[in-house]
Amino acid sequence: MIGLGQIGGEMANHLLEWPGGFTVYDVRAEAMTPFAEKGAHAAADLAEVASRARVISIVVLNDQQVREVVDELLPAAEPGTVIAIHSTIEAQTAVDLAGTAASHGVHVVDAPISGGFMGAAQGRLAVMVGGEAAAYERAEPVFRKWAALPMHLGPAGAGTRMKIARNLITFVGYAAAHEAERLAAAAGLDVSKLGAVVRHSDAITGGAGAVMLRSSTAPYGPEDGLRSIFEHTRELGEKDLSLAVALGDSLDIDLPLSTLALSRLAEALGVPHEET
């Protein structure tokens, strides 16, 4: 495991009993100490990691750091080694590195993770993997030590593209949450209590994932059993969004995300209105 920060360190905790030994590396020597005290081998440098490990996980900050780490690993890595990049990077970076590694007989898979610190601590992360199927199969037993949902998605870059799409929901949702907070505050409500209601109800309903049930984005057909359910959802959603926009107008609060959502909701749910 390379990179023992908040998430990488928690992932590493699940690998301490790995058969045959577990090697860690971090540019901060003090970050390796707790793992060395529990039996892991603290590598002196990246070349030593490559010489000791056949599945190598990388959890660093950005594309530049990932490229630097992989460049140092490749000369010392044995053919057949799998290097898994868990950082969220550009999809093309994953493709480039997989191509470079192939000339060394090494497999690079992009394997970004979702679930944050708590998911890492609990061993319940999702890991979205792009790369050769054989490389995924070799690394999967390692992933399952800290992931509840390992998923092979296709060639190099596929895992990163999936992570980008997944995170879009999170951060657009954060922007929408702020819009809701501004509306609640303008209406004289306790914003902290709004947050409590949202957390409570999302834990029950599943949030945005509850409507992501198919492998297609095409509209629901007339015979689809889910169509009537989502038509009902559309009616409720358009009513509630209309109420939110109207309340914002009455309080002189601009709600651009709500207004856009109102115009796009029917299409988003797969039940567009029939043209008249």
Task: Please specify the SSE layout and strand pairing.
Elements: H1 6-13, E1 23-24, H2 29-37, E2 41-42, H3 46-52, E3 55-58, H4 63-73, E4 82-85, H5 91-102, E5 107-110, E6 113-114, H6 116-122, E7 125-130, H7 133-143, E8 147-154, H8 158-186, H9 191-205, H10 227-250, H11 256-268
Parallel strand pairs: 1-2, 3-4, 4-5, 7-8
Antiparallel strand pairs: 6-7
Helix pairs in contact: 1-6, 10-11
Task: Describe the 3D structure.
With 276 residues, the chain is mainly α. It folds into two domains: 6-156, NAD(P)-binding Rossmann-like Domain (Rossmann fold, 3-Layer(aba) Sandwich), CATH 3.40.50.720; 163-268, N-(1-d-carboxylethyl)-l-norvaline Dehydrogenase, domain 2 (Orthogonal Bundle). It is built from eleven helices and eight strands. It has a three-stranded parallel sheet, sandwiched between helices. Strands 6-7-8 form a three-stranded mixed sheet. Strand 3 (55-58), helix 4 and strand 4 (82-85) form a beta-alpha-beta unit. It is elongated. The model has no long low-confidence stretch (mean pLDDT 96).
